Amino acid sequence: MELFSPSHPLTRALTERGYADLTSVQSAVLDPQAAERDLLVSAQTGSGKTVAYGLAMADTLLGEAPALEPAGEPLALVVAPTRELALQVHGELGWLYRHAGGQVVSCVGGMDPRAEERLLGRGCHIVVGTPGRLRDHLERGALRTGKLRVAVLDEADEMLDMGFREDLEFILEATPQDRRTLLFSATLPHEITAMARRYQRDAWRIALSAGRQGHADIDHRAVRVAPNEIEHAVVNLLRYFDSPTAMVFCGTREAVRHLQASLLERGFGVVALSGELSQNERNHALQALRDGRARVCVATDVAARGIDLPSLDLVIHAELPRTAETLQHRSGRTGRAGRKGVSVLLAPLSRRRKAEHLLQAAGLKVEWTSAPSADDIARLDQQRLLQHPVLTEETTDDERAMARTLLESRAPEEIAAALVRLYRAQLPAAEEVFDPGSGLPAREPRDRGEPRHPREAGGDRQARPSVWFRLNIGRLKNADPRWLIPLICRQGRITKQEIGAIRIMERETRFEIDAAAAERFQASLSQIDRPEGRIEPLGDAPPGGDRHGPTADASSPRSKNKPGTKPHANGKFAGKARPRP
What we know:
The protein is an alpha/beta fold. It is 37% helix and 17% strand.
């Protein structure tokens, strides 16, 4: 039966799901030259690969029949790297083969293996699972592959990266030699091509990941940020874009827990996904995102693999990915199947070169910008309030009567101000952020024609009186003038020109402030509820130096790293650093 005839069961399923056009990879696997052949496919995540291999194996499973034969031993086996992806594939193939009478069973870690054995024993057409659990069922004899016609490896590169080579080889060796093997991968490193040569026969190669095709629906951006302001930048990006669902990537479980707690404290609806969570906990987190109880997901790379959330419009890389492939996969959580999305890469100054290498390797050309400022977000809040349903929806008679009563006792400006307060009370507060590219607040760029301060021009730094202060962050906490200066300016509400010499020592940093600004500086420090570093006065006498500690000057136009001031190499949040005892 021809696939695109109106009576074909898969055509009916696609029509019901609103498929007007197929994606590039879906069209490619239906090319006449690919019919009944093994396939080696490289395509970006989010390109519709699941439906693609569901369509590709239709002729092999159905032939000319209008429906599948009665369920027994499985006809197709799909192997995926994670539980989330396997369960997502299970759902996709379920609706695609529903009119063909397809029975799909999932076998994944974290679920009851005895329940899976019972389902396998009742018979099915397609089995979807993770490598470890599928191997367990094969070894126990619960999964029989004697009638298998198609084996699919989904995201094969990730399965090899995660150490599943031995399990994959065991699974493929346990399947019939005359099966079709469909291998899908975002990238095709040597290990993948070697596996293809070993387990595929005369494979048809489909390469759709080259060039910018995989990025067409994603607006990629790069944001420079001070190491101690990564969390602040995340907060402002979430507020600026106001996405129905956003995903923030961190490198470790500890960083995920920390950032989740910080965002919860600020009033965001946020869930976390990391490898330590049980399957039940992951399901609850994903359901909270789908039904709107949470709008932000903080996750590690492994935990987020395979997640597909229709309303996910924003991806933030709070910590740099390890490889360009990981960058592409993270970004691919948004901009899926024709939808638009934004991917923002946060890069401290010390890691900008690595960020640029990642972007170049991924084939991305982006413009570097600063994080949105509090003023930027305030302007957007005003526009959003004017478009809010509370102002645009039709007013009822009861509401008009109450409005007239309010106007009799309050001025219109008071009522409008109360509405603004109510609206703002529901929103997390934006953060003041600095643009580390200039050393000044992002909302106060310096006029290029403004003359430099005499001290900045290299004048006598001792000509003006100053007061010395101590900050409890030193070389052991990767102190760097490039992010210490914005921190001092923000906490003390001073300008860069009012900071003199900076001496970074092993456990602390000492710096001088113009005497005329010192009193104001101390008063500002006393008003901070949660300081990012403890600052104490030392007096007007220069402190004893550290023969191993470098001396920098806030006003130097070319302040550079000195030995011993290497910033964080692992991307952790320096703003929460504490001195060692």
